[in-house]
Write a structure and sequence with these properties.
heterodimer, A: alpha+beta, six-stranded antiparallel sheet, three-stranded antiparallel sheet, B: alpha+beta, about 35% strand
Chain lengths: ~120, ~350
Amino acid sequence: MDIKYTKDHEWIKIEDGTVAVIGITDYAQHALGDLVFIELPKLGAQYKKGAYFAVVESVKTAAEVYTPVTGEVVAVNTALESDYDLLKSDADGWIAKFKMTDAAELAGLMDEATYRDYVKTAG
Amino acid sequence: MKTTPLHAQHVALNAKMAEFAGYDMPLYYDLGVLKEHEWVRSSAGLFDVSHMGQVAIKGVGAQDFLQSLTPSSFEKLPINKAKYTVLVNPDGGIIDDLMVTKTGADDFHMVINAGCKEKDIAWIKSHLPAALEFTYFDDWALLALQGPQSEAVMRDVLGIDLSAVPYMGLWYRDDTMFVSRLGYTGEDGFELSVPAADAPALWTALLADDRVKPIGLAARDSLRLEMGYCLYGHDIDATTSPLEADLAWVMAKDRIADFAPPHRKRVGIVLLDKGIAREGAGILNTEGIKIGVLSSGGFSPTLKHAIGQGYVPSEYAAEGTDVSVVVRGTPLPARVAKMPFVQPRTKK
């Protein structure tokens, strides 16, 4: 499946051409360390491209999770609240699904090879 | 960036490294911060704290000099016992907090914060009477072994019987190893001061025991926060007096009057629901008016909820006072709480 990546270490999968499924990458999770809290968005909430819609907190720090697309939250992975390790799962590690208003906003996101290079240069 | 004599050991252990006070230090190892925290509370954790400064003052009048730099009295402190205190400036603000061990009637060894080393040394030297000798142990390392298994590990691995050493007591061997029964975690444990060249072998020997795991600075911070201990530059600094910081217990009674009566006080804060409030979060009263700011805050791995410290006006400092703390614009219900948050298990 075609996965896109942001410079802030979110991954985005597109379902049915109109729904963006968003999670955070292994790199981001490793950098954060053990998670102790996740703040999830509310169903039906609207977010503009670039806004943060969730917060993942480790013992040391809080990291905001940004959406690269404008849209409405149509699904929230509430299972994460009781199992932070689920974030590591490729299939079940998503945070929220957005109904996109403009799929053109996906242009400019990185593909997997580009993201890998980006992470390498990020150290 | 500066490194400690154990830097190669941290890298070999695949530690997640980060800058702290100009040093490249281990934040956590393979175990991860939560399990490291629990390991210290249940077994024995080994920390490299060699970035901290070790200095000594000796000579006739050293005790009087130390009593002029701090608001404490060392007259009744027995030889080979340590005392926690603060260096204060003429305005009554805290320059640093430190552990002072009396190694002789006029002979004191001190451990100062990494980030304050240069400032402290300059301050002490600028006031040092000519008759006193000041030493900076730049080429010494400091390891901390903390947790309920520490005494047994010291006996089994190093052959050192510390069972008779009381809390805050000092044991030493020649001029090659100084062991103090104290720490920054609230557990029984020791700090081991050795020449830098001896540190790698000591580190490796202790870690070879199954009861010992390496612990990074992230867990050191969550462990000390559960104890309500101050972190310099966060919970105390040059703008806070020892009375405001609730450190009257380190002061000599006849010195308290030297300081202005405090209008605010450092208190413990517990969050009552989910969410984590960190340093800088505003503290509100029940009317929603801002009354203070968190100086430290984070998740307590032992209690499984967020805790913190902050300064509030004295009328809000009573245990049980309802407040809220602002996290990303939302006030979360919280309460002023007694510190330590978790019962210490240091040796009596």
